[in-house]
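Before relying on records like the one below, remember that each one covers exactly one chain. Contacts with other chains, cofactors or solvent are not represented anywhere in the record.
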Amino acid sequence: MAKASGQFLIFDSAHAYGSSYNGTKVGVFGDAEVFSLSGTKVVTTAEGGLVATGHDWLAEKLQCFRGHGFKIDYESRVVGLNAKLSELHAALGTLTLPKIEESILRRRAIRDAYKDELAEEVVWQHVRDADRSTYKDICIRVNCDVGALQQKFADAGIQTKRYFRPLHTMRLFKDFATLALPNTESVYDASLCVPVFEDMPDSAVSRVADMIRRYSSSTVESDT
């Protein structure tokens, strides 16, 4: 569609460093892809990110934008800003980069362990066999009160997250909502990101899954 209409295509690939689509590593699709390297990502520099592009002219312009508008000659070609990655942050990134395959394999094993434990108790994100996710997050849909379940985890000292809040439900943007989005809202209302990190032991996965099973079962029983 972008090619047909002559539009520039940018992918938000914030979570996707190390993932692949149809066997091709993410980063070569569209005119540009933007990755996050913040502290929650599989490859991290603590903060910041990077842009991948196949356009030499765009790469050169971005190099100028990030460094006050110039590259090495202190002659500003564009109105830029100070968005360079510091040497310290780059050093952190080079330490995490060699571990990316190991990290993704472990995160996939954790996802598989959750699926073995919970099976059809929850709804899973669909990842095709031809593709690979980094599993930066493991987001599930549950059949109980997500807010109450999240509080149960918090009471037990276990952190969960509710990402992906729909823009039209935020106070800042609600005035721009022009139509109802019931499917979007129902997905968010039932979604919860469960813990996942490379050092997470299988016993912790079992504990999280058991809490979900027990709370979901008690909710169903109370409803009936």
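DSSP finds seven helices and eight strands in the chain.
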